[in-house]
Amino acid sequence: MKIFYITIPLVVLLMAGCTDKETTSPPPDETEQVAQQDDTTTQKTDVKKDSNQQPEKEADTSTDKSITDTNSSKELKTTTLRDSFTGYKKVTVDGGDLSGSRQANVVVDIGFGDRKYWAFTNKHGQLVRVIAKKIVLQDDATEDVTSDGRYYSDEAKVPGVERPDLDEGHIIADSLGGVSNAYNITPQDSTLNRHGDQAYMEDVIRKAGGATNFEAQITYPDTSTMIPSAYQYTYTVRGNTVVDRFKNGNPDETNAALGLT
Q1: Residue range 20-35: average pLDDT?
Q2: Distance, CA of 92 to CA of 173 (rounded, Å)
Q3: DSSP structure class, residue 92
């Protein structure tokens, strides 16, 4: 009897232990659900990974923006260059055109060959400004010039050059690479052009081998004449900026009036 009473509790305990073990083990359906949850977790992790890659796309966009900004800067520079021609119509005139007439408010390239020298007229057709980033001297070894160093046999007949005391004066001489149409010619005192300040300025640039930042400003006594009253030249040679101002008159007469020779 004692053995019987001892055996029954043991059997009960064993059955209870088996029941607890089965309860703690998940059924097959629950195992699959956990597996699905793990897959879901993995997918979420992948999504986060993709989210972490998103800033790289933003970085690429930032790079594109940088390129756009650079292009905008280039456009701005181009616009600034064009702004120097604002209000002027760009026209092309043959370098050897002998016509003395000019259009109003235009800009014309008066450089021979590949040179870029720009001449500007005002609303009255007067030549008022000439600019050149770089003056390149004439090269008679490679350029077609006449025996007296001219690109053309004659110069434009600007009104006023018919006067015996006036020359067909170049703003930028043949020797400095200038053409001979009306956008580079003004009626200029003959002595001034051949022996005075105009000739001296041209000689300085030739001896220096050229010049940079060249600008000529031409003034007139009124709006009806094509004969200038004065000139101002600004240019840089050998690192020195030079400013020449002189009237359109005979320097010998001016010097004589001042008691100079």
Answers
A1: 42
A2: 19
A3: -
Which range among 48-52, 97-101, 152-156, 160-164 shows the weakest confidence by mean pLDDT?
48-52
Q: Are residues 59 and 94 in the same domain?
A: no
Coil, strand or helix: which one is 174? Answer: helix
Give the integer Cα–Cα distance in Å for 135 and 106.
Answer: 21
- Would you state the pLDDT for residue 52? 44
- Span 113-160, pLDDT tens digits: 999 999 999 999 999 999 999 999 999 999 999 988 999 999 999 999
CA distance 100 to 159: 6
The region of weakest confidence among 37-46, 103-112, 123-132, 178-187 is 37-46
Q: How many whole angstroms separate alpha carbon 83 and alpha carbon 16?
A: 98
Q: Is residue 82 part of a domain?
A: no
Locate tokens 């001016």: which residue?
Answer: 254
DSSP annotation string for 23-66:
HHSPPHHHHHHHHHHHHHHHHHHHHHHHHHHHHHHHHHHHHHHH
Domain of 54 in residue numbering reads as 2-67
Is the same domain home to 137 and 38?
no
Beta bridge partners of residue 169, listed in sequence order: 186
Q: Does any domain span residue 152?
A: yes
**Whether residue 55 is found in the same domain as residue 112:** no
Handedness of CA 70, 74, 80, 83 (dihedral sign): negative
